[in-house]
Each structure stands twice: as structure tokens, then as C-alpha cells.
Write a structure and sequence with these properties.
Number of strands: 3
Radius of gyration: 18 Å
CATH architecture: 2-Layer Sandwich
Shape: elongated
Oligomer: single chain
CATH superfamily: K homology (KH) domain
Strand content: 15-25%
Helix content: 40-55%
Keywords: Cytoplasm, Ribosome biogenesis
Distance between the termini: 44 Å
Largest sheet: 3 strands, mixed
CATH class: Alpha Beta
InterPro entries: KH_dom-like_a/b, RbfA, RbfA_dom_sf, Ribosome-bd_factorA_CS
Main location: cytoplasm
Order of helices and strands: HEEHHEH
Subunit structure: Monomer. Binds 30S ribosomal subunits, but not 50S ribosomal subunits or 70S ribosomes.
CATH topology: GMP Synthetase, Chain A, domain 3
Subcellular location: Cytoplasm
Length: about 120
């Protein structure tokens, strides 16, 4: 279980990262929805999950590359907004949990349909 301070840090980063992205001129990432932040090793590393459902699968590496290029500006914004002396190193990943949950819902619907046909 994560400590309260780590959860608070993740919550704060969930607010500040989209704010930092909205100030950028790259239209691919300036309105990118951030779905979760997972801090590891204290505040040294953070995995930032974004919703890439608006992009095709072949566009995702370009989006991640653009996010990595903007990493310094995101860190500067976080440091200026929080007063921290150090900002986590961000790694960006496409959040596929929504697609997985859609698949699970489709499986449940299929099971329900099969049960109704058997009755």
C-alpha cells in the first residue's frame, strides 16, 4: 500500500501535468488526457499514463516522443508550481486499461447472451 504522501504527490502531478501540457504548442499533446500517475522510488520516477484512444496505434510512438521532448518543460512547470527542489523523471505510457475494460464488458455481454439462449 502506498503512503499518503506518495498518493498526494501522484494526485498533485495528475493536476499539474495536464496544466503544463496545455501551455505547449504541439496540438497532439496539449490536450492529452492524463489518466494516472504512478510514482516509484519515492518521488524519483513517475510513470504517466495517458489516454491514446484518439490516436491510431502507429501514431502512439510519435506522441510518446513528443511527450519526452516536452519533459523538461513539464518538469519546470511542476517545480515552479510546487516549490519542490526535485521533480520525478517522467516516463509516458499509453493507458490501455479502457480498451481492456471494454473487452471485458463485451465478454460479459456475450456470456449473458449465451445464458439467455440456453434457457
Amino acid at each position: 500500500m502506498k503512503s499518503i504522501n506518495l498518493q498526494r504527490t501522484e494526485s498533485l502531478l495528475m493536476e499539474l501535468i495536464p496544466e503544463a501540457l496545455s501551455n505547449l504548442s504541439d496540438s497532439r499533446i496539449n490536450s492529452l488526457p492524463i489518466t494516472a500517475v504512478n510514482c516509484k522510488n519515492g518521488k524519483y520516477d513517475a510513470i504517466v499514463y495517458f489516454d491514446g484512444s484518439d490516436f491510431e496505434q502507429k501514431e502512439i510512438p510519435g506522441v510518446i516522443s513528443a511527450l519526452q521532448k516536452a519533459n523538461g518543460r513539464i518538469k519546470s512547470h511542476v517545480l515552479a508550481s510546487t516549490g519542490w527542489y526535485k521533480c520525478p523523471n517522467f516516463k509516458f505510457q499509453n493507458d490501455t486499461s479502457l480498451e481492456k475494460s471494454m473487452n471485458i464488458e463485451a465478454l460479459f455481454a456475450q456470456i449473458e447472451k449465451t445464458k439467455k439462449e440456453e434457457e
